[in-house]
Amino acid sequence: MLGRKSKGTIDSLIGISTNIEGNVHFQGGLRIDGRVKGNVIADGEEPSMLVVSEHARVEGEIRVAHLVVNGEIIGNVHSSELLELQPRARITGDVHYKALEMHGGALVSGKLTHDQVSEPVLKLAMSNT
């Protein structure tokens, strides 16, 4: 999966023995198995995906389209598409999402906010037959 550039693939990996202090900006897909002390932000208009594994810990704000969490996040989360909270997910901070999938065992200590995108107005054509 590494290296392929299509929707939902992982292009980069922060390994389990890696500790990063500072903001991380990425495009495409990123998996975090280590620790990041800083914001994790998906740049660009292309679809983005972030996986925070069961071994990972992120201390900072996260901004991404599709987020899968099975580790720990301390900070606010902004998911513009889908947020998946796996059984070992632990989030301490406010969470903003468009769509949410939450498994039993996942914990959020903060406010959950559904960010609604205005739905297109459906126009019905009336025929005079």
UniProtKB/TrEMBL annotation:
Any Pfam family: Bactofilin
Q: Which domain of life is it from?
A: Bacteria
| Record InterPro entries | BacA/B
Q: What's this protein's family per the entry? A: Belongs to the bactofilin family.
Q: What is this protein called?
A: Cytoskeletal protein CcmA (Bactofilin family)
The source organism is: Noviherbaspirillum aridicola
